[in-house]
Amino acid sequence: MKGCCEGTALTNAVVVNIPSDTPLVPFNFSAIGTSAHELFHQWNMKYVFPKSPSGAYLLSEGFTNYFAVASLVRAKMIPERSFARFMSIYRNKLKKNPKYKDSTYSKIQTGFATNDDELVDLAYTKGPFVAILMDIALKEDTEGKSSITSWFQTLSKEFGGKRGYTIKDLRRLTIEVSGRTNGKAVRMFDSAFIGGKRLPLGALFVRLGISCKTLKSCTLKPLSQKDEKIRSRLFSAEL
Length: 239
Hints:
Layout: E1 6-9, E2 14-17, H1 29-44, H2 57-74, H3 80-96, H4 105-114, H5 117-142, H6 148-159, H7 167-178, H8 184-194, H9 201-207, E3 210-212, E4 218-220, H10 225-235
Antiparallel strand pairs: 1-2, 3-4
Helix pairs in contact: 1-2, 2-5, 3-5, 4-5, 5-8, 6-7, 7-8
């Protein structure tokens, strides 16, 4: 039996491997985080799904990683600084991945078809940052009225339990939710979701006031009241 923790989302069930000798107290992030990830798959893989059988892995796995951790913040199961630590860990993973420098959507898709571990990992590690960057862009386009949460709600309303979506649908919905045909959100979608350029993570960490001297000592610097509200809503996936 493999160590903690791996999971699978089935049509009407979630299976998470938590060996009997796994300590759950104090809070076991691996066990609870995996459970949250698989539970979210009930939403974005069993209820909302892509038209192509090859999937849309940057969304289905990467955005799921974002929402899974954010949901734990929102439920007050982990503090905001734990979300910052999650971001720091994933930034380090991206830096170490030799294929990150050209991680286009199409290449990540191909990685799953060819069992390329480095490309597969990018869906999980790049995806959360794409969700975060799109959240900020949507907020800026709409003066805070829309976010990645409302983008996903719109996706669910149109495609939930119905026909599958395409990559063109995802881009169209980005424009619809932002209300701008050439706004920051759709430009971020084109460069970060579809494109393969390195993400502006240094600027993102500065903007969110995240400082991590080590992976175990991440702190959140004080920001203006407005920016702290944006950070808090981002970390907990709130509108």
